[in-house]
Design brief:
disordered N terminus, 7 helices, 2 domains, single chain, five-stranded parallel β-sheet, 378 residues, Rossmann fold, alpha/beta, Jelly Rolls
């Protein structure tokens, strides 16, 4: 399906929907008094996914990649009242489609600018529709303050899809965020528009396994050393937060949501920065995994090494992760597992070696197949 891009300064874009209900399926009375109705951010008619924060009591905050809000309604058009504190891309999914049919681009507004109503879908056939706004860009470049939906029609909570029973938490860096995954030409200019948590390995794994996912990822962060060589705001510290930006440094309550599987994909930035402190890396990994285990005592934890490390870096990272796993197991930490993504030199990759869409899909297939075999997730 063709993808359209929308800036919040534009008026409307249009989405075709082949799965919508037909006019013949609607009672004549439903056409009477069709009007715009408002559904606020805290309504029971909405379904959220991912770590959700709250602003100053007037909005929900979608910070992390893959956070989403879904509404079901009977009507023909939908708008969202949102503002952002950076550059944000939101995918729009209509009526259970496999791929997003449009993308909303939202940029920061001036202090005196009024929060706009942003068109989401328009001129749909009047009927039952389920719409999802999915944050595809990462937390540290912008967050979405979501105040509510306005629709030409009425909300129908009973039409919301069932929440998946399986739960997965993905922790990682830019690979997990899906950085540059949509880049198709090595000569094309890199940028946030090419990032997609949905088409990254984490989003595709969750889709294959039909799992609700929390995607806690931030580009450039390491477990012991960041890509730029700094040691502040390492991912184990960021993991504790509702979001990575200045506005959301409140602690996340891990009791709100317990995953069945936690996939921890770390080490790429540590080694890319020239890290040579094996003891420091191993000890940091041990501390972080023990922390995750304390929050989620029943979860299976998978230590994963990514597809961007090659040569000695790949060998060292895998060896250090194996050592950390053995130390943890000797200390009584159970349900620990190891999995590795293999680099593929003959596959075109995105900016600075990030997996492209095809490679990310391959990684997701391999990880999903291993999870099905190892944990019986058929």
């Amino acid at each position: 399906m063709k993808i359209f891009f929308l800036s919040i300064t534009l008026a409307f874009f249009f989405v075709s929907c082949s799965n919508s209900i037909q006019y013949s399926d609607i009672n004549e009375g439903d056409f009477q008094a069709i009007e715009w109705t408002w559904v606020p951010y805290d309504s029971d008619d909405l379904q959220y996914s991912g770590r959700i924060g709250y602003g100053e009591g007037d909005s929900a905050v979608l910070s992390w990649s893959a956070t989403a809000v879904t509404i079901a309604f009977v009507g023909s058009a939908l708008e969202a009242k949102i503002r952002t504190n950076g550059l944000v891309y939101l995918d729009v999914f209509v009526d259970g489609e496999e791929d997003p049919s449009s993308v909303i681009e939202s940029k920061s507004l001036g202090e005196d600018e009024k929060t706009p109503m942003v068109p989401v879908v328009a001129e749909l056939p009047y009927g039952k529709h389920v719409i999802t706004l999915y944050k595809r860009s990462e937390s540290n470049v912008g967050e979405v303050y979501f105040y509510g939906f306005r629709m030409l029609g009425r909300a129908e909570k009973g039409l919301l899809p069932a929440v998946p029973k399986r739960k997965m938490e993905f922790i990682g860096n830019s690979i997990t965020c899906g950085a540059e995954v949509l880049l198709t030409d090595q000569d094309e200019e890199s940028g946030l528009i090419h990032e997609s948590s949905y088409y990254g390995y984490a989003g595709q794994t969750a889709k294959i396994l039909n799992a609700e996912a929390h995607n806690i990822c931030s580009g450039g962060h390491g477990i012991f050393l960041n890509y730029d060589g700094t040691t502040s705001n390492l991912l184990p510290a960021v993991y504790e937060k509702i979001g990575t930006n200045w506005s959301l440094f409140d602690q996340w309550d891990h009791n709100k949501w317990h995953p069945d599987i936690v996939v921890v994909n770390l080490g790429t930035n540590d080694f890319a920065s020239g890290m040579n402190d094996s003891a420091g890396f191993v000890n940091a990994t041990v501390r972080f995994i023990k922390s995750i285990r304390s929050y989620h005592p029943m979860a299976k934890i998978v230590l994963l090494d990514g597809p961007m490390l090659v040569g000695d870096y790949k060998t060292q990272c895998r060896r250090f992760l194996n050592v950390a796993k053995k130390i943890l197991e000797k200390r009584g930490v159970k349900n620990l597992y190891r999995f590795s993504f293999e680099p593929r030199g003959d596959s075109p990759l995105g900016f600075v070696g990030h997996p492209n869409k095809e490679k990310a899909a391959e990684d997701a297939e391999n990880l999903s197949a291993w999870i099905r075999s190892e944990f019986g997730w058929n």
